[in-house]
Structure formats: C-alpha cells, structure tokens
Amino acid sequence: MQLAAGKARSIDGGECPVLGVDTEVAVDGTALGKPVDATEAEAMLERLSGRTHEVVSGLCLRTAAWEELRGETTMVTFRALTARDLAHYVSSGEWEGRAGGYAIQGLGASLVERIEGDYLNVVGLPAALLVRLLTLRFPGTYGFG
Known about the structure:
Structural class: alpha+beta
Strand order of the largest sheet: 2-1-3-4-5
CATH architecture: Alpha-Beta Complex
Number of domains: 1
Number of strands: 5
Shape: elongated
Distance between the termini: 29 Å
Number of helices: 5
Mean pLDDT: 95
C-alpha cells in the first residue's frame, strides 16, 4: 500500500483526485515481483503451478484535502502446468514487466483454473474498490447520492 501512496503523493493534482495503484503477487507469504529474465519468469510460474496465490493491490485515491488508502486481495489458482505449458508461455514474452510473471488478461488466462475476488485487481486495477471509494467521496458524480 505504501508504494501506491507514494505514486499518488508524487503528483500534485490540485483539486483534482489523483490515483496511485501498485500490485504484487505473493505465494507462501513471499512477494514474487517482476521477473528480470525468462529463467526467473519460468521459475515463478513453476512455483505457482497447481497452487493458489494472492494478488494484492494497494490503492491510494487523494486530493489536497483528503486521502483514502486501501488494499484489495484476489486469490488466483493456477492449473498444474507442464514443461510445455511453461515453455510456450515464457516464449510469448507476455511475462515481461508483470508481477508474478503473468498477465491474466492475455495468454496468461490459460494458466488460471479459478479466481476468487475482483478479476480486474489481477489485471492491475482493483476496480470494485475504486468504484466504492469514488461513490463515497463523490456521491453526486459516482453513485446514486
């Protein structure tokens, strides 16, 4: 959450709201980060194979007058991956710049067996959380108040 707050606080939006988000993939209490090369991407995906992991996002929505800092967690279960599955996905290059080494909105969807929670959180923006905060802070614009 602190990375999301740092991103949002680095922008002076004046009276306009500023949004900062940061997403991590964690398994066994360890954040996987973004793989630096294909070997690390394959190792991450192999570690996630046949298991459930967390996709955790911090979201900071702020103006000069207030700040909301919240977190969202989505559980993702990968199917058991074969060596061929790993090689195919890694060779696609889609893992580059992706927390946990995959992108659920692309070819990475084929790695996933199940998700519990906000799909868009796994993509990188906890949209349900953002909508709740916008409704809370701007009820006349977002929401029904």
